[in-house]
What does this fold into?
Amino acid sequence: MPQFQRILLKISGEALAGANSFGLDADRVAALAHEVAEVARTGVQIGLVVGGGNFFRGVAAAARRMDRVTGDHIGMLATVINALAFQDAMEREGIPTRVMTAIQMHQVAEPYIRRRAIRHLEKGRVVIFGAGTSNPYFSTDTAATLRGLEIHADIIAKATSVDGVYDKDPKKFKDAVRYMEVGYTEVLSKSLGVMDASAVAMCRDNRMPIMVFDMNRPGNIMRMAMGETIGTVIRESQDQLTTI
It folds into this structure.
């Protein structure tokens, strides 16, 4: 039985590039869509936010010379490209899917309207939220948190390239220790870097749990939805950190 009724799943744009450094890997998009579809078939309502790094990385050098607001708008449009690609892959799986964007573009997607998004979820449609919050200076982590709170998700599930939250960068330090559970305050005070500080603070203020897990292990999206102990859960701390 699924542990959660409604999930906000955050996937990085880089995940859709697969082994490539730029753009979309059709096989990788299809594989991720298949995993999300399997969860949707169990009756779990899924909202999805996809980053735009796989496209924005290609213009990053130029963006350094751009106005910050212009660069952020480019990043928002990149998320829409990914959202449309993921929608196509989901519908090939037979799952009805809607893309809703914070920047209106009626020819390709619905405008984001909170009540309509919730209605889509209640009807069993996967909803992909594109274009971030429509505001510069906010990351897709913050957009995912905002949408998760707005749709009353049970949890924010962040799929990453590592298997949880560590006390230091596991790619640089072999003695890094992974937490099974950690509090919001510890994440912020220790600058653990799992999400933007603003996103973590929003979750803390609204008691929204976050699960950070490895998306590269097949089946982990389903395991997360079933409530299995994978990755790291960030929620209210009891003054102690549990590590493994």
